[in-house]
Specification:
Blueprint lengths: L9 E3 L12 E5 L5 H14 L5 E5 L9 H6 L4 H11 L3 E3 L3 H4 L20 H4 L3 H16 L3 E5 L3 H13 L5 E5 L19 H7 L1 H9 L5 H14 L3 E8 L15 E9 L2 E9 L2
Parallel strand pairs: 1-4, 2-3, 2-5, 3-4, 5-6
Antiparallel strand pairs: 7-8, 8-9
Helix pairs in contact: 6-7, 9-10
Length: about 280
């Protein structure tokens, strides 16, 4: 019996080689892929329904890092990343260089970040971050011309920023959200988790516990107190632990009863953990 073999996945570094992949379902990443990214790629394959190619973007974007040291430290693992993408069903990996994305002497596209980019959450601790995110997403869409793009919910503020920018600039790309993929103890999967030592890793599960316990609180103010208490009690340095309106990310009153989104950010040594969940749970 003849079986149709799936074409070998393409690995592309230059925009000119994207011919035949326009209208793709795109999975934006910065590499250092893990099981959470596998889930995003498989969701893209589902969305494509065999009628559109699935392209994984791998690019460590320098414009969204606040510190050069953090940019340099970000893990680059292209070879195993390619294997993960192929196993998950991607049709191509597009891994451009910095000069390919931002040509020297080229006119920089600097879209205006939407209101969600300045809500006192990630932007308070990473000034300029979302300007870089909007810049690279706009450039990424211009280069790949997708019909849809799959983003994870772990970076909730980023998801809302991208959704709002795509709508306000009429980019014509469907933004597909995928739930956060977690470790057995609830820790949200992240490329930066590899930097946690054994003791830090044992305490990092407090992030998910904080969200879980906070979900049972009757008011936003109570939830914030519960989350902060659990994080601090586990030795995490809390940056924020707040309940916000889910899409606009607007602040809410302490007595508010939802529905909302609980968002946290905390540090364990040099590792920064972020997470979120629907509230109340």
């Amino acid at each position: 019996m003849n079986r149709t073999r799936r074409p070998r996945m393409r690995i592309i570094a230059e925009q000119r080689d994207l011919a035949g992949l326009r209208g793709c379902v795109l999975v934006p990443t910065m590499g250092a892929l893990h099981a959470g990214h596998t889930a995003l790629i498989r969701r893209a394959v589902e969305a494509a329904r065999g009628a559109r190619p699935v392209v994984v973007w791998i690019f460590v974007n320098p414009t969204q890092f606040n510190e050069q040291a953090d940019f340099q430290r970000y893990p680059r693992t292209l070879s195993p990343d390619v294997g993960l993408c192929e196993a998950a069903g991607a049709d191509a990996v597009f891994a451009p260089s910095v000069d390919e994305v931002y040509p020297p002497g080229g006119a920089a596209i600097t879209p205006a970040p939407p209101a969600q980019a300045e809500m006192g959450l990630e932007d308070r601790f990473r000034p300029g971050h979302f300007a870089g995110v909007c810049q690279v997403v706009r450039r990424m869409f211009d280069m790949t011309r997708p019909t849809a793009a799959v983003f994870g919910e772990k970076d909730w503020q980023q998801l809302q920023v991208v959704r709002a920018m795509t709508a306000q600039d009429k980019l014509g790309v469907e933004i597909v959200a995928h739930p956060t993929v977690r470790e057995p103890d609830g820790l949200a999967m992240s490329s930066r988790n590899r930097f946690l030592d054994r003791d830090q890793r044992s305490r990092a599960g407090a992030a998910a516990r904080a969200l879980c316990e906070g979900a049972g609180a009757s008011t936003a103010g109570d939830a914030e107190g519960v989350m902060r208490g659990i994080l601090e009690g586990s030795g995490l340095a809390v940056e924020y632990a707040e309940v916000r309106e889910p899409e606009s990310l607007a602040r809410v009153e302490p007595g508010w009863r939802g529905p909302g989104r609980a968002l946290i950010a905390a540090r364990l040594g040099s590792v920064r953990l972020i997470d979120n969940a629907p509230w109340p749970g």
